[in-house]
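Cross-check.
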Amino acid sequence: MGKVVDARGLTCPQPVIMTKKAMGEPGGDELITIVNQAVALENVSKLARSQGYETEVEQKDDDYYIHMTRMGKDDDTGGPETEELAIMIRSNLFGQGEAELGQVLMKSFLFSLNELDTRVTHIIFMNSGIFLTIEGSPVLETLKVLEGKGVEILSCGTCLDFYQAKDKLAVGSVTNMYTALEILTTAGRSITL
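Predicted model, tokenized:
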């Protein structure tokens, strides 16, 4: 029997993150992740297949047991996880649509960055994105953890001035458009939200 990851009752991305961590630990060639939500079942199964695992799902009552066995050897050649990634966030919401959903998705996105193998070097906050870096932000602790890992957190000075929030900056430092553009164009990869 392989290593067991009990992710029942947890919402995505937590089951995926826990499974990904277990894959990298001793005994990670054979895993069983237990979930009780169809979305988690689908997402963990996709992760497993993308990482070279064969999967088999067993349902017991309301729980899904995802049995995973790694096929072949890891090709750890230092691929994309070693490439630097810069991210620009232009809004305090993730995507368009309902504000409540946008807040939930942004929180989940930033939390997931903490678990990512890719080397995130900079997160730049522009426009209403600066509301994520000031006092009262629901993601301050997550951003502080990222900063503690060496990620440079930068907020647009013009945006902070516009929203009269410069004195409320609670994580990271102030930047300008030129520096932000320079970071985004010289990083190995960049994402803009």
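The first helix runs from residue 14 to 23. Confidence is low (pLDDT under 50) at residues 74-81. Passed to J.P. for a second look.
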